[in-house]
Amino acid sequence: LDMFLRDPHVFVSKEGKKQNLSEMDYIVKVIGPILDIIFSDVQQLLQLKWGDTVCKGTRRKIDLRIICREKDIELSHSECARMITRIKITKDRSKSLRTNKHVLNKYLINSLSEEAVGDSVVIGLQFAELYGQIIGIDLLDEGLYFGFEGPTFAFPNQLCNLSSLQETLEALYFLKVMENLD
To answer: Which CATH code is given to the segment(s) 2-178?
Structure first.
């Protein structure tokens, strides 16, 4: 809300044209501040690592890694994109599923109880422009993984579209609940 009060045309010009923003613009102006607020009560437990940081196990650059501070364990990977194109969305989705599969495997290696194996889901976020979706990977049986799509959401692009923010916040809080941090 503060962002729109400071600059009502941050995403859409006075003429109604979409502003030319970078991936980092979307992260710095919208996604990052909102996720910081959502996870603010568990800052001592986890860290949101932004900006093409490298996953140790896969050696891939990840846009957002959620990491357990105490044990330096990765909990989730997410990808962000500047523009919505079919190719970029598909590449980011595939990358996110592969890297979250690695996160899930590391979790299972460290926690081999029957309950842990039965509740073996890792979810992440995929962002493009002001749109996002929860995606995840589940271990259904030994060696059988299932990638799934969760709810989609959209950040408002103008002050008059703020009503969409409630659904977006509900979806993002779902990520926190799935990480067992609520």
So the answer is: 3.90.1570
